[in-house]
Amino acid sequence: MAVEVVAEGAEEVVAPSPAPEKEVAAADEAVTLASVVSKNASFREESNSLDDLKDGEKKALAELRAKLEEAIVEGKLFDDGKVVEAKKKVEEIATEEKKDSAEKKTEEEETAGEKEDSEKKTAEETAGEKEDAEKKTAAAEKEKDAEEKKEEEAAAEAKKEEAGDGEKAAESSPSPAAVVDKDITLWGVPLLPSKGDDATDVILLKFLRARDFKAGAAFDMLRKTLHWRNSFSIDIGDDELPAELAGACYLDGVDREGHPVCYNALGVFADEAVYRKAVGTEEGKARFLRWRVRAMERHVAGELDFKPGGVASLLQVTDMKNSPGPAKKDLRVAMKQVLDVFQDNYPELVARNILINVPFWYYAFSTLFYPFMTQRTKSKFVIARSSKVTETLLKYIPIEAIPVKYGGLKRDNDTEFTAEDSEVTELIIKANSTESIEVEATEGDTTLTWDLTVLGWDVNYKEEFVPRDEGSYTVIVRKGKKMGSSEEAVRNSFRAGEPGKVVLTVENMTSRKKKVLFRHKAKSACAKKC
Protein backbone atom coordinates (compact mmCIF):
# COMPACT_ATOMS: atom_id res chain seq x y z
CA MET A 1 0.00 0.00 0.00
CA ALA A 2 1.14 3.56 -0.67
CA VAL A 3 3.09 5.37 2.07
CA GLU A 4 3.17 9.18 2.07
CA VAL A 5 6.63 10.80 2.18
CA VAL A 6 7.03 14.43 3.30
CA ALA A 7 10.40 16.13 2.76
CA GLU A 8 11.64 18.98 4.96
CA GLY A 9 15.13 20.23 4.24
CA ALA A 10 17.45 17.25 4.05
CA GLU A 11 15.30 14.99 6.20
CA GLU A 12 12.52 12.65 5.20
CA VAL A 13 9.57 12.03 7.44
CA VAL A 14 7.69 8.84 6.67
CA ALA A 15 4.09 8.52 7.75
CA PRO A 16 3.43 5.45 9.87
CA SER A 17 2.24 2.45 7.92
CA PRO A 18 -1.38 1.36 8.35
CA ALA A 19 -2.14 -1.23 10.94
CA PRO A 20 -1.21 -4.74 9.72
CA GLU A 21 -4.77 -5.95 10.19
CA LYS A 22 -6.03 -3.18 7.85
CA GLU A 23 -3.51 -4.19 5.21
CA VAL A 24 -4.62 -7.79 5.52
CA ALA A 25 -8.28 -6.76 5.26
CA ALA A 26 -7.63 -4.73 2.11
CA ALA A 27 -5.65 -7.57 0.59
CA ASP A 28 -8.38 -10.06 1.47
CA GLU A 29 -10.97 -7.75 -0.06
CA ALA A 30 -9.00 -7.53 -3.30
CA VAL A 31 -8.40 -11.27 -3.40
CA THR A 32 -12.09 -11.93 -2.75
CA LEU A 33 -13.15 -9.70 -5.65
CA ALA A 34 -10.55 -11.24 -7.92
CA SER A 35 -11.64 -14.76 -7.02
CA VAL A 36 -15.31 -13.93 -7.63
CA VAL A 37 -14.58 -12.37 -11.00
CA SER A 38 -12.20 -15.17 -12.00
CA LYS A 39 -15.10 -17.63 -11.82
CA ASN A 40 -16.95 -15.68 -14.48
CA ALA A 41 -14.98 -17.30 -17.27
CA SER A 42 -17.56 -20.09 -17.15
CA PHE A 43 -20.46 -17.74 -17.98
CA ARG A 44 -22.13 -18.65 -21.25
CA GLU A 45 -24.56 -16.51 -23.20
CA GLU A 46 -28.00 -18.09 -23.51
CA SER A 47 -29.68 -19.01 -26.77
CA ASN A 48 -32.35 -16.71 -28.22
CA SER A 49 -34.24 -19.62 -29.76
CA LEU A 50 -37.72 -20.14 -28.31
CA ASP A 51 -37.22 -23.90 -28.46
CA ASP A 52 -34.37 -23.62 -25.95
CA LEU A 53 -36.44 -21.78 -23.33
CA LYS A 54 -37.70 -23.49 -20.18
CA ASP A 55 -41.45 -23.64 -19.53
CA GLY A 56 -41.29 -20.87 -16.93
CA GLU A 57 -39.31 -18.67 -19.31
CA LYS A 58 -41.81 -19.24 -22.12
CA LYS A 59 -44.64 -18.28 -19.76
CA ALA A 60 -42.83 -15.07 -18.75
CA LEU A 61 -42.23 -14.19 -22.41
CA ALA A 62 -45.91 -14.73 -23.23
CA GLU A 63 -46.93 -12.52 -20.30
CA LEU A 64 -44.55 -9.75 -21.36
CA ARG A 65 -45.79 -9.96 -24.95
CA ALA A 66 -49.39 -9.57 -23.71
CA LYS A 67 -48.52 -6.58 -21.51
CA LEU A 68 -46.65 -4.87 -24.32
CA GLU A 69 -49.36 -5.57 -26.90
CA GLU A 70 -52.06 -4.11 -24.64
CA ALA A 71 -49.97 -1.06 -23.72
CA ILE A 72 -49.20 -0.18 -27.34
CA VAL A 73 -52.67 -0.89 -28.78
CA GLU A 74 -54.48 0.98 -25.98
CA GLY A 75 -51.95 3.80 -25.95
CA LYS A 76 -50.76 3.16 -22.38
CA LEU A 77 -47.07 2.51 -23.05
CA PHE A 78 -46.01 5.98 -21.92
CA ASP A 79 -48.81 6.40 -19.33
CA ASP A 80 -47.06 7.45 -16.13
CA GLY A 81 -50.28 7.64 -14.05
CA LYS A 82 -50.98 11.41 -14.30
CA VAL A 83 -53.88 10.95 -16.71
CA VAL A 84 -55.50 8.34 -14.49
CA GLU A 85 -55.14 10.57 -11.42
CA ALA A 86 -56.72 13.54 -13.23
CA LYS A 87 -59.73 11.47 -14.32
CA LYS A 88 -60.10 10.15 -10.79
CA LYS A 89 -60.12 13.69 -9.43
CA VAL A 90 -62.90 14.75 -11.84
CA GLU A 91 -65.01 11.73 -10.80
CA GLU A 92 -64.54 12.55 -7.09
CA ILE A 93 -65.67 16.15 -7.67
CA ALA A 94 -68.80 14.95 -9.51
CA THR A 95 -69.64 12.60 -6.62
CA GLU A 96 -69.26 15.42 -4.09
CA GLU A 97 -71.59 17.65 -6.15
CA LYS A 98 -74.32 14.98 -6.12
CA LYS A 99 -73.94 14.57 -2.37
CA ASP A 100 -74.16 18.34 -1.76
CA SER A 101 -77.27 18.55 -3.96
CA ALA A 102 -79.04 15.86 -1.91
CA GLU A 103 -78.16 17.57 1.38
CA LYS A 104 -79.44 20.92 0.07
CA LYS A 105 -82.79 19.37 -0.90
CA THR A 106 -83.22 17.94 2.59
CA GLU A 107 -82.46 21.32 4.18
CA GLU A 108 -85.03 23.05 1.95
CA GLU A 109 -87.74 20.56 2.99
CA GLU A 110 -86.96 21.13 6.68
CA THR A 111 -87.07 24.91 6.18
CA ALA A 112 -90.47 24.66 4.47
CA GLY A 113 -91.91 22.72 7.44
CA GLU A 114 -90.64 25.23 9.96
CA LYS A 115 -92.08 28.07 7.89
CA GLU A 116 -95.55 26.43 7.89
CA ASP A 117 -95.57 26.11 11.71
CA SER A 118 -94.53 29.71 12.06
CA GLU A 119 -97.40 30.87 9.86
CA LYS A 120 -100.00 29.00 12.00
CA LYS A 121 -98.68 30.59 15.15
CA THR A 122 -98.70 34.12 13.79
CA ALA A 123 -102.35 33.69 12.62
CA GLU A 124 -103.46 33.59 16.28
CA GLU A 125 -101.68 36.83 17.06
CA THR A 126 -103.18 40.28 16.68
CA ALA A 127 -103.56 41.76 13.22
CA GLY A 128 -101.04 44.48 13.94
CA GLU A 129 -98.48 42.13 15.35
CA LYS A 130 -99.12 39.74 12.47
CA GLU A 131 -98.52 42.43 9.91
CA ASP A 132 -95.31 43.60 11.60
CA ALA A 133 -94.09 40.05 12.05
CA GLU A 134 -94.81 39.20 8.45
CA LYS A 135 -92.92 42.25 7.30
CA LYS A 136 -89.96 41.47 9.52
CA THR A 137 -90.01 37.77 8.57
CA ALA A 138 -90.25 38.58 4.87
CA ALA A 139 -87.34 40.99 5.11
CA ALA A 140 -85.23 38.50 7.09
CA GLU A 141 -86.05 35.66 4.72
CA LYS A 142 -85.27 37.82 1.74
CA GLU A 143 -81.93 38.78 3.23
CA LYS A 144 -81.22 35.16 4.17
CA ASP A 145 -82.15 33.92 0.71
CA ALA A 146 -79.87 36.51 -0.85
CA GLU A 147 -76.95 35.41 1.36
CA GLU A 148 -77.61 31.71 0.70
CA LYS A 149 -77.81 32.40 -3.01
CA LYS A 150 -74.43 34.17 -2.92
CA GLU A 151 -72.88 31.30 -0.94
CA GLU A 152 -74.31 28.71 -3.34
CA GLU A 153 -73.06 30.66 -6.36
CA ALA A 154 -69.58 30.99 -4.80
CA ALA A 155 -69.47 27.26 -3.92
CA ALA A 156 -70.69 26.30 -7.38
CA GLU A 157 -68.08 28.55 -8.98
CA ALA A 158 -65.31 27.06 -6.81
CA LYS A 159 -66.35 23.49 -7.68
CA LYS A 160 -66.61 24.43 -11.32
CA GLU A 161 -63.08 25.83 -11.25
CA GLU A 162 -61.81 22.73 -9.40
CA ALA A 163 -63.50 20.43 -11.89
CA GLY A 164 -62.14 22.53 -14.72
CA ASP A 165 -58.63 22.22 -13.31
CA GLY A 166 -59.03 18.45 -13.13
CA GLU A 167 -60.29 18.26 -16.70
CA LYS A 168 -57.55 20.64 -17.80
CA ALA A 169 -54.93 18.43 -16.13
CA ALA A 170 -56.36 15.43 -17.93
CA GLU A 171 -56.37 17.33 -21.21
CA SER A 172 -52.88 18.79 -20.66
CA SER A 173 -51.42 15.28 -20.35
CA PRO A 174 -51.32 14.11 -23.96
CA SER A 175 -53.44 11.08 -24.58
CA PRO A 176 -51.12 8.06 -24.82
CA ALA A 177 -53.09 6.86 -27.82
CA ALA A 178 -52.01 10.00 -29.64
CA VAL A 179 -48.29 9.62 -28.90
CA VAL A 180 -47.74 5.85 -28.87
CA ASP A 181 -47.04 4.79 -32.43
CA LYS A 182 -48.02 1.21 -33.21
CA ASP A 183 -44.93 1.11 -35.44
CA ILE A 184 -42.67 1.97 -32.49
CA THR A 185 -39.26 0.27 -32.68
CA LEU A 186 -36.23 -0.27 -30.49
CA TRP A 187 -32.85 -0.62 -32.23
CA GLY A 188 -34.72 -1.00 -35.48
CA VAL A 189 -36.91 -3.86 -34.21
CA PRO A 190 -40.75 -3.49 -34.07
CA LEU A 191 -42.00 -3.72 -30.47
CA LEU A 192 -45.64 -4.61 -31.25
CA PRO A 193 -45.68 -8.43 -30.85
CA SER A 194 -48.63 -8.91 -33.22
CA LYS A 195 -46.50 -7.68 -36.11
CA GLY A 196 -44.90 -11.13 -36.03
CA ASP A 197 -41.24 -10.08 -36.27
CA ASP A 198 -38.99 -12.80 -34.81
CA ALA A 199 -36.53 -10.15 -33.62
CA THR A 200 -39.16 -8.76 -31.22
CA ASP A 201 -38.89 -11.82 -28.98
CA VAL A 202 -35.09 -11.52 -28.97
CA ILE A 203 -35.38 -7.94 -27.67
CA LEU A 204 -37.97 -8.94 -25.06
CA LEU A 205 -35.80 -11.84 -23.88
CA LYS A 206 -32.99 -9.38 -23.17
CA PHE A 207 -35.20 -7.39 -20.82
CA LEU A 208 -36.55 -10.57 -19.22
CA ARG A 209 -33.07 -11.95 -18.56
CA ALA A 210 -32.02 -8.63 -17.05
CA ARG A 211 -34.93 -8.98 -14.58
CA ASP A 212 -34.70 -12.72 -13.89
CA PHE A 213 -37.72 -13.49 -16.10
CA LYS A 214 -40.13 -11.40 -14.02
CA ALA A 215 -42.51 -10.09 -16.67
CA GLY A 216 -43.76 -7.11 -14.65
CA ALA A 217 -40.25 -5.89 -13.81
CA ALA A 218 -39.10 -6.45 -17.40
CA PHE A 219 -42.06 -4.43 -18.72
CA ASP A 220 -41.26 -1.55 -16.34
CA MET A 221 -37.61 -1.65 -17.43
CA LEU A 222 -38.59 -1.54 -21.10
CA ARG A 223 -40.97 1.36 -20.53
CA LYS A 224 -38.31 3.29 -18.56
CA THR A 225 -35.81 2.65 -21.34
CA LEU A 226 -38.19 4.12 -23.91
CA HIS A 227 -38.83 7.13 -21.64
CA TRP A 228 -35.07 7.61 -21.21
CA ARG A 229 -34.44 7.42 -24.95
CA ASN A 230 -37.04 10.14 -25.53
CA SER A 231 -35.68 12.42 -22.80
CA PHE A 232 -32.06 11.80 -23.84
CA SER A 233 -32.96 12.57 -27.48
CA ILE A 234 -31.10 9.44 -28.46
CA ASP A 235 -31.99 9.71 -32.14
CA ILE A 236 -31.05 13.38 -32.50
CA GLY A 237 -27.62 14.73 -33.41
CA ASP A 238 -24.29 13.08 -34.02
CA ASP A 239 -22.02 13.96 -31.11
CA GLU A 240 -18.38 13.53 -31.95
CA LEU A 241 -15.59 13.04 -29.42
CA PRO A 242 -12.55 15.34 -29.65
CA ALA A 243 -9.76 14.05 -31.89
CA GLU A 244 -7.48 13.49 -28.89
CA LEU A 245 -9.92 10.84 -27.61
CA ALA A 246 -10.36 9.03 -30.93
CA GLY A 247 -8.68 5.93 -29.49
CA ALA A 248 -10.82 5.87 -26.35
CA CYS A 249 -13.47 3.61 -27.89
CA TYR A 250 -13.38 1.65 -31.16
CA LEU A 251 -14.45 -1.64 -32.75
CA ASP A 252 -11.81 -4.07 -33.97
CA GLY A 253 -12.56 -7.61 -35.13
CA VAL A 254 -14.80 -10.30 -33.65
CA ASP A 255 -14.44 -12.93 -30.94
CA ARG A 256 -14.67 -16.71 -31.28
CA GLU A 257 -18.49 -16.58 -31.23
CA GLY A 258 -18.77 -13.74 -33.72
CA HIS A 259 -19.38 -10.90 -31.24
CA PRO A 260 -17.94 -7.57 -32.42
CA VAL A 261 -15.14 -6.54 -30.05
CA CYS A 262 -15.24 -3.01 -28.64
CA TYR A 263 -11.99 -1.71 -27.11
CA ASN A 264 -11.99 1.06 -24.48
CA ALA A 265 -8.55 2.55 -23.77
CA LEU A 266 -8.41 4.58 -20.56
CA GLY A 267 -4.75 5.46 -21.05
CA VAL A 268 -5.73 8.44 -23.23
CA PHE A 269 -6.81 10.20 -20.02
CA ALA A 270 -3.24 10.16 -18.66
CA ASP A 271 -2.70 13.52 -20.37
CA GLU A 272 -3.80 16.18 -17.87
CA ALA A 273 -5.11 18.58 -20.53
CA VAL A 274 -7.14 15.84 -22.19
CA TYR A 275 -8.45 14.67 -18.81
CA ARG A 276 -9.62 18.14 -17.78
CA LYS A 277 -11.28 18.82 -21.10
CA ALA A 278 -13.03 15.45 -21.31
CA VAL A 279 -14.28 14.78 -17.77
CA GLY A 280 -12.95 17.58 -15.55
CA THR A 281 -16.27 19.46 -15.48
CA GLU A 282 -19.94 18.49 -15.22
CA GLU A 283 -20.44 19.75 -18.77
CA GLY A 284 -17.53 17.59 -19.92
CA LYS A 285 -18.92 14.50 -18.18
CA ALA A 286 -22.33 15.07 -19.78
CA ARG A 287 -20.70 15.43 -23.20
CA PHE A 288 -18.60 12.30 -22.63
CA LEU A 289 -21.70 10.29 -21.60
CA ARG A 290 -23.62 11.48 -24.66
CA TRP A 291 -20.74 10.57 -26.96
CA ARG A 292 -20.34 7.12 -25.37
CA VAL A 293 -24.07 6.45 -25.73
CA ARG A 294 -23.98 7.56 -29.37
CA ALA A 295 -21.01 5.23 -29.97
CA MET A 296 -22.97 2.35 -28.44
CA GLU A 297 -25.94 3.16 -30.67
CA ARG A 298 -23.72 3.07 -33.77
CA HIS A 299 -22.22 -0.24 -32.73
CA VAL A 300 -25.65 -1.77 -32.09
CA ALA A 301 -27.14 -0.46 -35.34
CA GLY A 302 -24.18 -1.38 -37.51
CA GLU A 303 -22.96 -4.65 -36.03
CA LEU A 304 -25.73 -6.57 -34.23
CA ASP A 305 -28.39 -8.88 -35.65
CA PHE A 306 -31.48 -9.43 -33.49
CA LYS A 307 -32.88 -12.29 -35.55
CA PRO A 308 -32.93 -15.66 -33.73
CA GLY A 309 -29.48 -17.18 -34.11
CA GLY A 310 -27.91 -13.82 -34.96
CA VAL A 311 -25.10 -12.12 -33.03
CA ALA A 312 -27.03 -9.81 -30.71
CA SER A 313 -24.37 -8.57 -28.27
CA LEU A 314 -20.86 -7.10 -28.07
CA LEU A 315 -17.67 -8.10 -26.28
CA GLN A 316 -16.20 -5.18 -24.31
CA VAL A 317 -12.46 -4.96 -23.59
CA THR A 318 -11.35 -2.13 -21.29
CA ASP A 319 -7.61 -1.44 -21.18
CA MET A 320 -6.56 0.24 -17.92
CA LYS A 321 -2.90 0.64 -18.85
CA ASN A 322 -1.67 4.13 -17.89
CA SER A 323 -5.16 5.05 -16.72
CA PRO A 324 -5.35 7.84 -14.10
CA GLY A 325 -5.00 6.62 -10.53
CA PRO A 326 -7.50 6.71 -7.67
CA ALA A 327 -6.90 10.43 -7.06
CA LYS A 328 -8.59 11.26 -10.40
CA LYS A 329 -12.15 10.73 -9.25
CA ASP A 330 -13.75 12.59 -12.20
CA LEU A 331 -12.96 9.71 -14.54
CA ARG A 332 -14.40 7.17 -12.10
CA VAL A 333 -17.59 9.22 -11.84
CA ALA A 334 -17.86 9.52 -15.63
CA MET A 335 -17.27 5.80 -16.18
CA LYS A 336 -19.80 4.88 -13.47
CA GLN A 337 -22.38 7.08 -15.22
CA VAL A 338 -21.74 5.19 -18.44
CA LEU A 339 -21.96 1.83 -16.64
CA ASP A 340 -25.25 2.80 -14.96
CA VAL A 341 -26.81 3.95 -18.25
CA PHE A 342 -25.74 0.79 -20.05
CA GLN A 343 -26.99 -1.48 -17.25
CA ASP A 344 -30.39 0.27 -17.13
CA ASN A 345 -31.01 0.83 -20.84
CA TYR A 346 -28.94 -1.65 -22.84
CA PRO A 347 -29.73 -5.00 -21.20
CA GLU A 348 -27.84 -8.03 -22.42
CA LEU A 349 -26.14 -6.10 -25.26
CA VAL A 350 -22.72 -6.84 -23.76
CA ALA A 351 -21.87 -10.54 -23.73
CA ARG A 352 -18.79 -10.02 -21.57
CA ASN A 353 -16.70 -7.24 -20.00
CA ILE A 354 -12.96 -7.96 -19.96
CA LEU A 355 -10.72 -5.60 -17.99
CA ILE A 356 -7.01 -5.88 -18.86
CA ASN A 357 -3.80 -4.35 -17.47
CA VAL A 358 -5.70 -3.88 -14.22
CA PRO A 359 -3.63 -2.12 -11.51
CA PHE A 360 -3.80 -3.33 -7.93
CA TRP A 361 -5.58 -0.21 -6.65
CA TYR A 362 -8.54 -1.04 -8.90
CA TYR A 363 -9.48 -4.05 -6.77
CA ALA A 364 -10.01 -1.85 -3.71
CA PHE A 365 -11.92 0.89 -5.51
CA SER A 366 -14.09 -1.52 -7.49
CA THR A 367 -15.60 -2.74 -4.23
CA LEU A 368 -17.32 0.66 -3.96
CA PHE A 369 -19.54 0.16 -7.02
CA TYR A 370 -19.39 -3.62 -7.39
CA PRO A 371 -22.22 -4.19 -4.84
CA PHE A 372 -24.56 -1.98 -6.89
CA MET A 373 -24.29 -4.15 -9.99
CA THR A 374 -26.83 -6.87 -10.64
CA GLN A 375 -25.56 -10.40 -10.17
CA ARG A 376 -25.92 -10.98 -13.90
CA THR A 377 -23.77 -7.93 -14.69
CA LYS A 378 -21.14 -9.09 -12.21
CA SER A 379 -21.06 -12.52 -13.85
CA LYS A 380 -19.88 -11.00 -17.13
CA PHE A 381 -16.73 -9.35 -15.75
CA VAL A 382 -13.30 -10.87 -16.31
CA ILE A 383 -10.19 -9.20 -14.86
CA ALA A 384 -6.60 -9.70 -16.06
CA ARG A 385 -3.35 -8.25 -14.72
CA SER A 386 -0.72 -7.11 -17.23
CA SER A 387 1.08 -10.48 -17.19
CA LYS A 388 -2.09 -12.34 -18.23
CA VAL A 389 -3.49 -10.05 -20.95
CA THR A 390 -2.81 -12.19 -24.03
CA GLU A 391 -3.64 -15.43 -22.25
CA THR A 392 -6.98 -14.02 -21.05
CA LEU A 393 -8.00 -12.48 -24.37
CA LEU A 394 -7.08 -15.70 -26.18
CA LYS A 395 -9.83 -17.55 -24.29
CA TYR A 396 -12.42 -15.44 -26.10
CA ILE A 397 -10.72 -13.99 -29.19
CA PRO A 398 -8.64 -15.89 -31.78
CA ILE A 399 -4.98 -14.85 -31.81
CA GLU A 400 -5.23 -13.51 -35.37
CA ALA A 401 -7.99 -11.12 -34.21
CA ILE A 402 -6.17 -9.83 -31.11
CA PRO A 403 -4.27 -6.56 -31.77
CA VAL A 404 -0.49 -6.74 -31.75
CA LYS A 405 -0.22 -4.42 -28.75
CA TYR A 406 -2.09 -7.02 -26.70
CA GLY A 407 0.11 -9.89 -27.81
CA GLY A 408 -1.93 -10.96 -30.83
CA LEU A 409 -1.18 -11.08 -34.55
CA LYS A 410 -3.68 -8.49 -35.83
CA ARG A 411 -2.11 -5.41 -37.43
CA ASP A 412 -3.83 -2.35 -38.82
CA ASN A 413 -4.18 -2.30 -42.61
CA ASP A 414 -2.40 -5.64 -42.89
CA THR A 415 -1.73 -6.66 -46.50
CA GLU A 416 0.54 -9.63 -45.81
CA PHE A 417 -1.95 -12.09 -44.32
CA THR A 418 -5.56 -12.49 -45.41
CA ALA A 419 -8.33 -14.68 -44.03
CA GLU A 420 -7.40 -17.36 -46.58
CA ASP A 421 -3.73 -17.66 -45.65
CA SER A 422 -3.72 -16.75 -41.95
CA GLU A 423 -4.10 -20.22 -40.41
CA VAL A 424 -2.37 -20.19 -37.04
CA THR A 425 -0.44 -23.15 -35.59
CA GLU A 426 0.09 -23.76 -31.87
CA LEU A 427 3.17 -25.32 -30.33
CA ILE A 428 3.79 -26.18 -26.66
CA ILE A 429 7.36 -25.90 -25.37
CA LYS A 430 8.03 -27.83 -22.21
CA ALA A 431 9.93 -26.33 -19.29
CA ASN A 432 13.70 -26.09 -19.81
CA SER A 433 13.55 -27.18 -23.43
CA THR A 434 14.00 -25.80 -26.96
CA GLU A 435 11.83 -26.07 -30.07
CA SER A 436 12.45 -25.02 -33.68
CA ILE A 437 9.93 -24.00 -36.34
CA GLU A 438 10.87 -24.38 -40.01
CA VAL A 439 9.52 -22.22 -42.84
CA GLU A 440 10.37 -23.81 -46.21
CA ALA A 441 11.45 -22.10 -49.44
CA THR A 442 11.12 -24.84 -52.07
CA GLU A 443 12.72 -22.74 -54.80
CA GLY A 444 15.01 -19.75 -55.17
CA ASP A 445 13.85 -16.14 -55.28
CA THR A 446 11.13 -16.78 -52.70
CA THR A 447 9.99 -14.37 -50.01
CA LEU A 448 9.13 -15.98 -46.67
CA THR A 449 6.99 -14.06 -44.16
CA TRP A 450 6.03 -15.11 -40.65
CA ASP A 451 4.28 -13.98 -37.46
CA LEU A 452 5.13 -15.48 -34.07
CA THR A 453 4.17 -14.82 -30.49
CA VAL A 454 4.73 -16.62 -27.19
CA LEU A 455 2.24 -16.28 -24.36
CA GLY A 456 4.09 -14.53 -21.58
CA TRP A 457 7.34 -14.66 -23.62
CA ASP A 458 10.31 -14.73 -21.18
CA VAL A 459 12.24 -16.93 -23.63
CA ASN A 460 15.33 -16.72 -25.87
CA TYR A 461 14.51 -16.30 -29.55
CA LYS A 462 16.48 -16.24 -32.82
CA GLU A 463 15.96 -16.60 -36.61
CA GLU A 464 18.30 -17.94 -39.29
CA PHE A 465 18.17 -19.15 -42.90
CA VAL A 466 19.63 -22.59 -43.60
CA PRO A 467 20.23 -23.27 -47.35
CA ARG A 468 19.45 -26.69 -48.76
CA ASP A 469 22.88 -26.75 -50.40
CA GLU A 470 25.33 -27.81 -47.71
CA GLY A 471 28.01 -25.76 -49.43
CA SER A 472 26.15 -22.51 -48.81
CA TYR A 473 26.41 -20.49 -45.64
CA THR A 474 23.77 -20.16 -42.96
CA VAL A 475 22.43 -16.61 -42.76
CA ILE A 476 21.51 -14.99 -39.44
CA VAL A 477 18.16 -13.30 -39.98
CA ARG A 478 17.72 -12.16 -36.38
CA LYS A 479 20.27 -12.46 -33.62
CA GLY A 480 19.39 -14.36 -30.49
CA LYS A 481 17.65 -12.19 -27.90
CA LYS A 482 16.05 -12.61 -24.50
CA MET A 483 12.40 -11.64 -25.01
CA GLY A 484 10.70 -9.95 -22.06
CA SER A 485 7.26 -10.88 -20.80
CA SER A 486 5.57 -7.87 -22.46
CA GLU A 487 6.99 -8.23 -25.99
CA GLU A 488 4.69 -7.82 -28.98
CA ALA A 489 4.35 -10.47 -31.65
CA VAL A 490 7.29 -10.77 -34.04
CA ARG A 491 6.77 -10.23 -37.76
CA ASN A 492 9.66 -10.66 -40.16
CA SER A 493 10.39 -11.71 -43.74
CA PHE A 494 13.36 -13.05 -45.68
CA ARG A 495 14.01 -13.25 -49.42
CA ALA A 496 15.67 -16.60 -50.12
CA GLY A 497 17.85 -16.57 -53.22
CA GLU A 498 18.05 -20.37 -53.15
CA PRO A 499 16.00 -23.27 -51.78
CA GLY A 500 16.25 -23.68 -48.03
CA LYS A 501 14.39 -22.91 -44.83
CA VAL A 502 14.12 -20.25 -42.19
CA VAL A 503 14.49 -21.76 -38.71
CA LEU A 504 12.79 -19.99 -35.79
CA THR A 505 14.27 -21.17 -32.48
CA VAL A 506 12.52 -20.68 -29.14
CA GLU A 507 14.41 -21.61 -25.97
CA ASN A 508 12.32 -21.91 -22.81
CA MET A 509 14.56 -21.78 -19.76
CA THR A 510 11.73 -21.32 -17.26
CA SER A 511 10.09 -23.96 -15.08
CA ARG A 512 6.76 -23.57 -16.86
CA LYS A 513 5.62 -24.69 -20.28
CA LYS A 514 5.11 -22.02 -22.95
CA LYS A 515 2.58 -21.77 -25.77
CA VAL A 516 3.84 -20.54 -29.15
CA LEU A 517 1.44 -19.37 -31.89
CA PHE A 518 2.69 -18.71 -35.39
CA ARG A 519 1.73 -18.47 -39.05
CA HIS A 520 3.78 -18.15 -42.21
CA LYS A 521 3.55 -17.90 -45.99
CA ALA A 522 5.88 -18.18 -48.97
CA LYS A 523 5.60 -16.18 -52.20
CA SER A 524 7.88 -16.97 -55.14
CA ALA A 525 8.98 -14.42 -57.72
CA CYS A 526 7.19 -16.49 -60.37
CA ALA A 527 3.92 -16.21 -58.44
CA LYS A 528 4.36 -12.45 -58.21
CA LYS A 529 4.93 -12.12 -61.97
CA CYS A 530 2.06 -14.42 -62.83
TrEMBL record:
The record's section on Gene3D superfamilies has: CRAL-TRIO lipid binding domain, GOLD domain
- Kindly state which keywords UniProt assigns to this record, in alphabetical order: Cell cycle, Cell division, Cytoplasm, Lipid-binding, Membrane, Transport
Q: Could you tell me which species this protein originates from?
A: Leersia perrieri
Q: Which Pfam families match?
A: CRAL_TRIO, CRAL_TRIO_N, GOLD_PATL1_C
Where is this protein chiefly located? cytoplasm
Task: Name the CDD domains for this protein.
Answer: SEC14
One GO BP on record is:
cellular response to auxin stimulus
Which family does the similarity line name? Belongs to the patellin family.
PROSITE patterns per record: CRAL_TRIO (PS50191), GOLD (PS50866)
Stretches for region Disordered: 84-177
- Return the protein name: CRAL-TRIO domain-containing protein
Q: SMART domains, from UniProt?
A: CRAL_TRIO_N, SEC14
GOLD domain ranges (all copies): 415-522
Q: Residue limits of the CRAL-TRIO domain?
A: 238-414
Q: Which compartment or compartments is the protein found in?
A: Cytoplasm; Membrane
Recorded GO cellular component terms are:
cytoplasm; membrane
Q: For this protein, what is any one GO molecular function term?
A: lipid binding
Q: Where is the composition biased (Basic and acidic residues)?
A: 84-170
